[in-house]
Design goal:
single chain; alpha+beta
Length: 194
């Protein structure tokens, strides 16, 4: 059975039920501000999570660093790390060459019984922003566009530049689908680069 020595990597196991209860209490008491609180906490933990991934990778492949892995190798190892750390499965893909998509059908922060009106894996969005920002060497933004806590079959997080993520957010707010927005962003970038 896969195992990550949590104390060795400065990590702690937290039951999924505790994360769900924390989110529910924050939503109840803080309303819309709950998302920002959870994102801030996730972002604060993202540095430690990336350090844990780096140490875990060094234990497995002493000459490898996350930044030097080719894309397919990084995808496989990151998926293994997150799964073995208890977060759930994670598949990494690219959408319209504009953003990375992180998909999970069993993401640890999600709670299909929550019945949320909107996406709810706010801790994860902050965590992913810090984690993948370290990998990219630049600030990144993360937006969850599908969530099991809100009735979707999977959780899907988009990772990209703040500018692109703002376009996606604005498009979603205007009633567009994220695929439609990303298609328009990719078309605009192609036209600008031609």
């Amino acid at each position: 059975m896969p195992f990550i020595d949590l104390p060795a990597y400065q990590l702690a196991a937290v039951p999924r039920a505790a994360i769900a209860a924390l989110r529910a209490a924050l939503l109840r008491d803080a309303g819309a501000a709950a998302a920002a609180y959870l994102q801030e906490a996730g972002y604060a933990g993202g540095d430690a999570l990336f350090a844990a991934f780096r140490a875990w990778l060094a234990d497995r492949q002493p000459d490898a660093t996350p930044e030097e892995l080719d894309l397919s190798e990084f995808q496989a190892l990151a998926a293994e790390f997150f799964r073995d750390a208890g977060w759930g499965s994670l598949a990494l893909t690219s959408l319209h060459d504009a953003v990375a998509a992180l998909d999970s059908e069993d993401w640890g922060e999600s709670d299909p019984a929550a019945g949320l009106e909107h996406t709810g894996c706010h801790l994860s969005t902050g965590m992913f922003a810090a984690f993948f920002g370290h990998l990219a060497g630049a600030p990144l933004a993360v937006l969850e566009v599908e969530c099991r806590s809100a009735g979707s079959e999977r959780c899907r997080f988009l990772v990209g530049s703040a500018e692109v993520m703002q376009h996606v957010y604005d498009g979603l707010s205007a009633g567009m689908g994220y695929e439609e927005v990303l298609g328009a962003v990719a078309a605009a970038e192609s036209a600008g680069g031609a």
